[in-house]
Task: structure prediction
Amino acid sequence: MRWRPIVSVSIVLAALGAALMGAPERVARAYGDWFYPRLQASLTPLSNRTTLPLFDIIWITLVIVAVVVLVRGVRQTFRARSLRIAARTLATLVTIAAAAYLWFAAAWGFNYRRPGVETAVAGFSAARVTPDALRTLARQSVSRANALHAQAHAEGFPALDAVPSPLLASLHRIERSLGRTTPTAASMPKRPLTAPYMRAVGVSGMLAPFALETYLNPDLTGPERPYVLAHEWAHLSGFASEEDASFVGALAALGADVPARYSVWLFLVSESAVRLPLAERRSLVANLGAGPRTDLDAIAARQRLRIPWLDRASWVAYDRAIKSQGAESGVAGYGRVIELLLGSGRLSEEDSH
Result:
């Protein structure tokens, strides 16, 4: 049919434009403030109606379709000895890839074009990020982890598929403080079909973009779950870069119940300690109680399940994918949460329970 080449070319050109052209500020603002919140509020509740990991099913289906198209095209090309068939097969594959990218960009990917979270934090100052402030945060993290450990374990950590209401309510408060007028519809955490891969590369969780779902690694320890879920919900809220999601997720966990607060302080123990000189790091860890230390050992044991070569290859690919969307820090953004927390001056404010 004559219209098929026109549709195919239109899809490919639209995908190239979306990938290569920066969105004007007005367009990015309209997407972030109007289109995406309404889409998320509609799409996530639909995906919550099933425990099936829809994103995994979608991308596996796309791969199967692409393989079928390729195999059929190769066979027909050799039988007919026609380069036209080969070109048509290639065009079909490119169109499928372009359509998938457009789906990703429209459903979530354009959030990468939005300004960083620093622009929404009142009074943010990079001058607060000093070695002394880091040492203070490290000591505070150890102190809070020690203090909250017993109560957090006594109250218990959320199940892998739970939607903790205190954490969600805290996220909504943080969203409002950062100018998000539409509260995020909570996604029910799901177990992905790709759980063995997540284990092999050490991924704790992910935002599945096509249907706006949240996936958690089934191997997560109890103390990890609240903060990891808060991080993924921050992505769901439209905070695309890793540093922004880590920052918003940390604030959300700090404003929630005791298990969530313990979860994020335990995370901050590790994040702050690795930035200290070795001698100071050892002194800091020596002050950590037996309970938090046991929890960190369990997290370390989980992370040792990674397959080193696959882990490295995965993170290199993910780093390039993030940077291709305009997030210059790539996977290094995970570590910037400390700078954002210190610069915001909101740590003591959020953990005032």
Summary: The longest helix spans residues 54-80. The longest strand covers residues 205-208.
